[in-house]
Specification:
The structure holds three protein chains of three kinds. Chain A is built from five helices and no strands. Chain A is mainly alpha-helical. Chain A has two domains: about 100 residues, Helix Hairpins (Orthogonal Bundle); about 60 residues, no CATH class. In chain A, helix 2 runs antiparallel to helix 3 and helix 3 runs antiparallel to helix 4. Chain C is about 75% helix and about 0% strand. Classes of the chains: A mainly alpha, B mainly alpha, C mainly alpha. Chains A and C meet through helix 3, helix 4 and helix 5 of A and helix 3, helix 7 and helix 8 of C.
């Protein structure tokens, strides 16, 4: 039991954040606070991804200067649009993890599978991919927050309030034939 | 050049082009009326040809929607007969409409005649359909094209009548008829009309056949089986030529014709007899017959009385199908013909009386027979035919039905038929009796009655008389359709 | 014709068509935002839409020739790089988005000029181009996280687009805000699901995921991932009970936005759902997916179609009514998906395309009415049959198509769907489809009765003369209305396209 908690402790804050965020979204009547809750919720997702990336005993995924060979032609491409860049190392391909109910936890010891002929410099790296994914997700979260807050500002201008109850009352009175 | 396929296509094309021309010529009433009449004559000639060639079952594929889904025409004696009745009576009705609409100075006459053309086109489509899908398509077009006719007057009552009309007819067709058709396709792989019954050929169990039978019986709302009938009396808000058309020529006859066609070519008499629900349905039809007649007795408005009479008479055909006996089904087919001619006479008479005197209720029609002898004479002949007395055409369907009921072991239902005849006497003849035998009222005619509203009912009354003597050819024409044994592999 | 166009196109463009179809609208968006003229913004949108249409045709030809097109972004091939993949499943969806986009752009010029303030129009068109690019991206990508990115791109633009309806009705703001909250929660659920899948397989490429899942079997992680993905995409697809954002959003957005979104947004999400269910998980191997078909999708579909149809009957605002109707139609698609067989999937895909055509016509016609008369309640539709006959006829044709009257594509959809359901023997589902059709009859008939049977609108006591909407509104609307009927008589192209799509995704790669 203690093992499970010590191995998977990271999920406790994740779950707490996620549920707190969702609860705030559902329970609050204030639109700005709702956006805050949403941000909390999205942050917890970042944590999930980052937790996966950690490889115990792994080095930061940066190739040392001397290691000239193995770099793909040109820098890592990032394509137009919102795609994320994938950094390839000559040793690492994907970290293939088998998560099973009984076995290791997802964020746990992952073996870097080396395909390279040059096996002499086999090294363990933390997975950079989830970090990149989360950067994207953070950007999306920021954009969402911005759009949401912009909407809140406009709602305030149009309705004079940012409380849910007052807004509902204003909207439904129109529907039940108030202003026409 | 005049191949069977061409004449099948012409049956649709003539009224369609007629309708288009009428729409274009709306501003010139005389030319417009002429177009309608010419289209009517051409259609009658074309259908006469179709009647001749029906035994060889020519087919025509109108459109292939997708593999396995086709709109096709397949000519066979039942359909040809219905087409003949419809086209013949359309011509008569068009003559009558001209007289009526002008005599009553109705508005929106172009829309009226165009809708008529489209409606008769869809009736032709129903008559000539080769599979259930085609039948359904033209059935729906018929509903939609007769809607402007029902709501012609445009006042609140007309709109209400139109709403009930559409709700019941579209509701039953989408809610019951369509699923029944799709289920048939699912069970049999197609919806083609096949001699001996498509479902019988595919070994469908009696229970499933029974369920489908119920869905078809109530899904074909135009057959006005109780309790689906309310659309019919409510459609009486329409001008009388429309009522005559609805109740004799196109709509109701398309309904009962569809039931007859489905009974003959989708189920087959043997399968109907085996289905567990055919007996309850036969009883419902019998109750319909009597109940509608009783309600008719209570109506003072002549058109409403005739409407309920129609409900009753239509259930004859439904009863005929549900008995599962070929002889009864022959009676049903004959009923389509005889009732059409008889009822249109009655309706046209009612309309003529209205045109002349603005009288709509029977209590207002005392003694009018002295002023309009020919009209009331025609009415009487039509009434006698509906009642079922020889030497008028309506005697034959009754006879065959009674025989069929006896043969199939449903002797009790003969009581319904006889009761219906008695009730018919009670609610149809008073008009004639009051017309002829009561003293003439001084409140007579407002203006001379146009010949065009008197002549058509007289023609159809004569027709009813003549049809009595045509029973031989009619029976020989129809009998091959109602064989009991499914001919495996022979499509119609 | 496709060969002719392909022959005119430079080879480089053909090779890069899968990425250009997404990239070009995205590049045009900031250009449209910078130029301060609304007209210019519209022209740029038009260029974008035409280009997308061109690319869609190219891709049609390519798929016809090669079967499946795979394009590796930046030369990084699968499974490490992001791969764009066009096959028989997403090609129809791409074509649909492109066609609807083009028609809606024509429709946009008069309606947007009427509804949106001229200073905001450039930004409006810019947001549209972003949304357009996002939807195309979701459809064409073969990478799971990329789906999330594009979903969010299109959604953010959508929130902005919907909120622009505030010029006419301030409820657009609250509608957009609520959609933002729910949409973000949904997208986040989706990304959690993708994260779980990544943990389980170590790859983000959907085809690769499928391979690894097939080799290694399923665990609770992948099951949880499935649940999260279904909820996330289901929310975007307006699957009952995750549909609550849709009625308000569609009712209060500008008419161009509603017409465009009603025909594309939920369809794209539904496509993504199919892609994940069949393209990543293989239902034959995963028992929980088969269970989900029957117990989640079919049930939700049936309840959705009944519930939403009933709610639609009680609406007084025509646009909200049609929005609820859209939810019901999504229920049909979910039922088709939930049948779990190729027949059902083909029926669902056929309905996807047909419904887009139907709803596009309906909303365009309502927008045409709104352009001249302003439509808030059904009674505002009174008598428009005489005053605006072209729009009224289009509305009528699409309306009876929605009900399922023959001679229209709605009938074809219902036919195939009911046949597919009968194949499974689910009589209760057939009854539900029929009942919701009857309910559709009820609410469509109400609107048609108002249009055709009531007196014309009056101004100063006299009936208004017959007015015609601008041809840019009439042309796309009439084209779509015509398509409603044309594809009934010529059903084969759509039906066989749907069947091929279903076959492509069920057989496997």
């Amino acid at each position: 039991m203690l093992e499970i908690i010590s191995e998977r402790f990271v999920y406790i804050p994740i779950i707490i954040l996620m549920m707190t965020g969702l609860y705030v979204v559902i329970s609050t009547g204030n639109l700005v606070k709702r956006m805050v809750g949403l941000s909390l919720f999205q942050t917890s997702v970042s944590l999930i991804y980052i937790a996966v990336a950690k490889v115990f005993g792994g080095a930061p995924p940066i190739l040392p200067e001397a290691h000239g060979e193995g770099y793909p032609d040109g820098a890592a491409d990032s394509s137009a649009g919102a795609d994320h860049a994938v950094v390839q190392t000559d040793h690492g391909s994907q970290i293939v993890e088998m998560a099973s109910d009984h076995g290791s936890d997802a964020g746990h010891a992952a073996e870097a599978v080396s395909h390279a002929v040059d096996a002499a410099h086999a090294t363990l790296y933390s997975n950079p991919l989830p970090h990149v994914l989360i950067l994207t997700a953070i950007v999306v979260g920021v954009a969402t927050l911005a759009v949401g807050l912009a909407l809140v500002v406009r709602i305030r201008e149009a309705y004079g309030t940012i409380e849910d109850d007052a807004l509902n009352a204003a909207d439904y009175s129109v529907e039940t034939g108030g202003t026409e | 050049m005049y191949s069977p396929e061409v004449s099948l296509a012409l049956a649709l094309a003539i009224p369609a082009f007629g309708g288009a021309l009428v729409a274009l010529l709306g501003s010139r009433p005389n030319v417009r009326e002429a177009v309608t009449l010419i289209a009517g004559v051409l259609l009658v000639l074309n259908v006469a040809h179709l009647v001749e060639i029906a035994q060889s079952n020519p087919t025509l594929t109108l459109a292939t929607l997708a593999p396995g889904l086709e709109l096709t025409f397949k000519l066979e004696p039942l359909g040809a007969l219905f087409a003949a009745v419809a086209s013949g009576l359309w011509l008569v009705n068009s003559l009558y409409s001209i007289g009526y609409m002008r005599g009553n100075k109705e508005k929106n006459q172009t829309r009226f005649y165009v809708s008529f053309c489209i409606a008769i086109m869809s009736a032709m489509g129903v008559a000539l359909s080769g599979n259930l899908l085609t039948l359904f398509v033209f059935y729906e077009i018929l509903t939609l094209s007769t809607f402007p006719l029902v709501t012609h007057k445009g006042d609140a009552k007309a709109k209400r009548g139109g709403r009930i009309y559409l709700t019941i007819l579209l509701g039953t067709s989408i809610g019951l008829l369509l699923p029944a058709i799709i289920a048939t396709h699912f069970l049999a792989g197609s919806t083609d009309f096949v001699a001996g019954g498509l479902l019988a050929l595919n070994d469908v169990t009696p229970v499933i056949a029974g369920v489908l039978l119920v869905m078809f019986a109530f899904g074909i709302g135009k057959a006005a089986l109780m309790p689906i009938h309310p659309w019919l009396p409510n459609a009486m808000v329409a001008p009388t030529p429309v009522s005559a058309f609805l109740h004799a020529v196109a709509v109701v006859k398309a309904g009962v014709f569809s039931i007859l066609k489905v009974g003959t070519y989708i189920f087959g008499p043997a399968m109907i007899a085996a289905a567990p629900t055919s007996e309850p349905l036969a009883w419902i039809a019998g109750i319909s017959i009597v109940l509608a007649s009783v309600i008719a007795l209570t109506k003072d408005n002549l058109k409403e009385r005739l409407a309920f009479s129609t409900v009753s008479q239509l259930s004859y055909v439904t009863l005929a199908v549900m008995l599962g006996s070929p002889l009864a089904m022959l009676g049903g087919a004959l009923q389509i013909v005889m009732h059409a001619w008889g009822k249109i006479t009655l309706f046209m008479s009612a309309g003529a009386i209205y045109t002349a005197t603005k009288a709509t209720n029977i209590s207002q029609m005392k003694g009018l027979g002295h002023h309009m002898p020919w009209l009331f004479g025609a009415y009487t002949l039509g009434a006698l035919s509906i009642i079922g007395l020889p030497p008028l055409g309506g005697a034959w369907p009754k006879l065959f039905l009674i025989q069929g009921a006896w043969e199939s072991g449903h002797g009790i239902l003969i009581i319904a038929l006889i009761a219906s005849s008695l009730l018919n006497v009670a609610y149809l003849l008073p008009v004639s009796i009051r017309g002829f035998f009561e003293p003439a009222e001084t409140l007579g005619l407002k203006k001379p009655t146009p010949m065009m509203v008197i002549l058509p009912p007289v023609i159809t009354a004569a027709g009813v008389l003549i049809l009595f003597f045509l029973i031989g050819p009619l029976r020989d024409y129809l009998m091959p359709v109602f064989a009991t044994t499914p001919h495996a592999g022979v499509s119609l | 014709m496709i060969d002719f166009i392909a022959s005119l196109t430079p080879d480089a463009i053909i090779r890069h068509a899968p990425v250009l179809i997404v990239v070009l609208p995205l590049i045009l968006a900031p250009i449209a935002a910078i130029i301060p003229s609304g007209r210019a913004g519209w022209s740029i949108s038009l260029i974008g839409a035409l280009f997308v249409g061109w690319m869609a045709l190219i891709l049609f030809g390519q798929v016809a020739e090669h079967g499946v097109i795979e394009y590796a972004m930046g030369g990084w091939s699968a499974p490490l790089g992001i791969v764009y993949r066009v096959d028989a499943l997403n090609l129809p969806v791409l074509a649909l988005i492109g066609t609807i986009g083009l028609l809606c752009v024509f429709y946009a010029l008069p309606t947007v000029s009427d509804e949106i303030d001229s200073k905001q129009q450039p930004l409006f068109y810019s947001a549209f181009l972003i949304c357009f690019a996002g939807l195309l991206g979701v459809t064409i990508t073969g990478d799971a996280f990329n789906v999330f990115v594009f979903v969010e791109i299109s959604s953010l633009a959508t929130y902005a687009l919907i909120a622009m309806g505030a010029g006419k009705d301030r409820r657009a703001l609250t509608a957009s805000y609520n959609y933002l909250i729910l949409g973000t929660i949904g997208a986040t659920f989706f990304v959690i699901g993708v994260g779980f899948l990544y943990m389980a397989t170590g790859t983000l490429n959907m085809a690769d995921m499928a391979r690894i899942l097939a080799e290694n079997g399923h665990t609770r992680v992948t099951q949880a991932a499935f649940a999260f993905i279904v909820v996330g995409l289901g929310l975007k697809a307006a699957m009952f009970p995750l549909h609550v954002w849709l009625p308000n959003a569609y009712a209060n957005a500008p008419s161009f936005v509603t017409a465009f979104l009603a025909s594309t947004a939920t369809k794209v999400a539904f496509y993504a759902l199919i892609r994940f269910i069949y393209g990543v998980y293989h239902p034959e191997d995963a028992h929980f997916v088969m269970m989900a078909f029957t117990w989640v999708f079919a049930v939700v579909g049936v309840i959705g179609m009944l519930f939403a149809s009933v709610q639609a009957v009680f609406q007084t605002d025509p646009r909200r009514l049609l929005a609820y109707s859209s939810v019901a139609q999504v229920g049909y698609m979910m039922l088709g998906l939930g049948l779990g067989n190729a027949l059902g999937l083909a029926a669902a895909l056929l309905h996807l395309v047909n419904h887009a055509i139907m709803k596009g016509t309906l909303f365009m016609a309502l927008g045409a009415f709104g352009l001249k008369f302003g439509i808030r309640r059904i009674s505002d539709l009174n008598g428009l049959g005489r005053t605006m006959p072209a729009a009224a006829i289009a509305f009528t044709v699409a309306g009876i198509s929605l009900v399922g009257v023959p001679l229209t594509i709605g009938f074809t959809s219902k036919w195939y769907l009911i046949l597919a359901v009968l194949e499974r023997g689910w009589w209760w589902a057939v009854a539900a489809v029929i009942i919701s059709s009857l309910l559709a009859l009820a609410y469509i008939a109400r609107m048609l009765a108002a249009i055709w049977m009531e007196d014309s609108p009056q101004r100063d006591g006299k009936p208004v003369a017959r007015t015609r909407a601008p041809w840019m509104v009439l042309a796309p609307m009439s084209l779509l209305a015509f398509a409603n009927v044309y594809f009934f008589f010529n059903a084969d192209p759509l039906v066989s396209m749907a069947q091929r799509a279903a076959a492509a995704v069920m057989v496997g790669h």
